[in-house]
Amino acid sequence: xxxxxxxxxxxxxxxxxxxxxxxxxxxxxxxxxxxxxxxxxxxxxxxxxxxxxxxxxxxxxxxxxxxxxxxxxxxxxxxxxxxxxxxxxxxxxxxxxxxxxxxxxxxxxxxxxxxxxxxxxxxxxxxxxxxxxxxxxxxxxxxxxxxxxxxxxxxxxxx
Length: 159
Known about the structure:
This protein is α+β, with helices and mostly antiparallel strands. Helices cover 33% and strands 16% of the residues.
């Protein structure tokens, strides 16, 4: 057993004091020690995108990062999108535009889209489709995901 490392993870503007082995991924620590189970684990090889979170505002695969690498960085998970009972425009748009079926990939898509739109709200349709194609969905066929993100852009512009 490896020596444990004590660190503080700032997730959704809240500090979590954790003790981890250096080999523990950020995804595992977020789920198992911080109790935030919205970050899903799929392939655990960085391919599917289900574990996408924002790390200092950038979308990253939490299954590919060790928790010890994130001490002092700002982490945002799908639980950090809504404000209380008010859904983030992306969450509401995914619901309203039927952009999910089984929902397993949805947190990863939401975080990927949030990271992209916060940096570039006027992203072209072609670039948006290219970015979203980096996450895998086996149910929806992607059309409604793109539609939902576009609808959310319009709503976010009104805020």
